[in-house]
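I'll show one example:
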Amino acid sequence: MLIDAHQAFAKTSDESACEELIGRVQQGDQAAFAQLYAQHNRRVYALCLRLLADRHYAEDVTQEVFVQLWYKISQFKGQSKFTTWLHSVASNIAISYLRKHKHWLQKVVSIEKSGMDETSIALCKGLNGLDKLVLRLPERARLVFVLHAVEGYRHEEISTMLGMAIGSSKSQYHRARKLLREWYENE
């Protein structure tokens, strides 16, 4: 079957509707922003929860992402998909939030915080087995795993985002995979 060249590059109605919605938000339309929020808040929350391993932090950061989105929407130029841009904004805000809210002792002494405890994980509704295991990972391993395996960032990008060596990023990723495999096999 041959495809018409114009058809192959034509935007889908979903993409056009999204562009129109973003344009309205960029013009200050609050109803359009509410619609954008309704379409994307669950995915942003899921990303924040995976990165932060704390429901309350994830809720706070999700709200912060959308506050920042309201102010930064003019920076979106459509050179990438909106969801890609939004996830990048959300990842950066979540990582910044994590840096700001670490306990002072963890900043002074290298104590690696593990992820959520089993009771907290059980309270998170709608998580499948792998998501529950990811939340148990130690912080650095969880961050690298989520950014690389889930969000698709390269280790070079992760090392810049998290302020670590590329080798450390790769090491943390392999550590996370090993722990996940062990936990999965023992469940």
User: Anything to note?
Assistant: Residues 1-11, 104-114 have pLDDT under 50 and may be disordered. The CA atoms of residues 87 and 151 lie 8 Å apart.
